[in-house]
Amino acid sequence: MARLEERPRELRRGTILLRENDPFSELYVLQRGMAMSYVLLDDGSRQILRFLFPGDMLAVSALVYRDSPETIVTLTDCTVCPFDRSVIGALITDHPRLSAIIMVVNQIEKVALTDRLAALGRTSAKARIAALLLEIRNRMRMTDKTIGNAFTLKLTQEEVGDATGLTAVHVNRMLRQLEEDGLIARDNGRVTLTNEAQLARAANYINRFDGLDLRWLPAAR
Fold it and tell me: Which whole-number Å values give the CA distances from 47 to 116, 137, 147, 165, 166, in the listed order?
């Protein structure tokens, strides 16, 4: 995996790595910072598909297509490491356990995305916001063990809305309601989960990185 990170590239916030429907030849490892992927709908609105964190491999969903099915843009200043997509073929041949682990991570992301899709159609606006806050905090904590119940939400209310199918005004209203319910507190961009257990219940949230069964993974060569 270290060989995939041999060509680090510094990017500023708002840099588009990959644009929807454009041809591409490289994948990326996100080494530092935060990014997101999204698609544009026919009416010009944006649907954010996933938020991306250090250690994530970017553009994997485009691997089987000639043109990218999504746009990837940096949300903060980032360090990314590009590599040719042919490297994935070599990984499958030479390191089957590693390639299986990459598949595992992408299946986890797929299930988490399915959860969000179900939430868009079947849960309240407050539940969607609560679930997103838990997801962002849990992903941040995977690479920063100092994060507890408090974290900096590096998203605008418009970005939160584009991930949850809400307007920025509605996002603001739901955040205030979560505060009034005693589930979160906010201070200058920082969010504290003041009652995490109740917040998770309100969100019907499942951490898809828990409860994994990886006994089937092939042995390392």
Answer: 12, 21, 28, 7, 10
SS3 149: coil
Q: Tokens representing 85?
A: 């997509």
- 50 vs 116: CA distance, rounded Å: 10
Q: Which domains occur in the chain, in start order?
A: 2-90 (2.60.120.10), 114-203 (1.10.10.10)
CA dihedral 113, 118, 120, 122 (to 10 degrees): -160
Q: Round to whole Å and give the CA distance between 60 and 88.
A: 10
**Tens of each residue's pLDDT in the chain, 221 residues:** 788 899 999 999 999 999 999 998 899 999 999 999 999 999 999 999 999 999 999 999 888 899 999 999 999 999 999 999 899 999 999 999 999 999 999 999 999 999 998 998 889 999 999 999 999 999 999 999 999 999 999 999 999 999 999 999 999 999 999 999 999 999 999 999 999 999 999 999 999 999 999 999 998 87
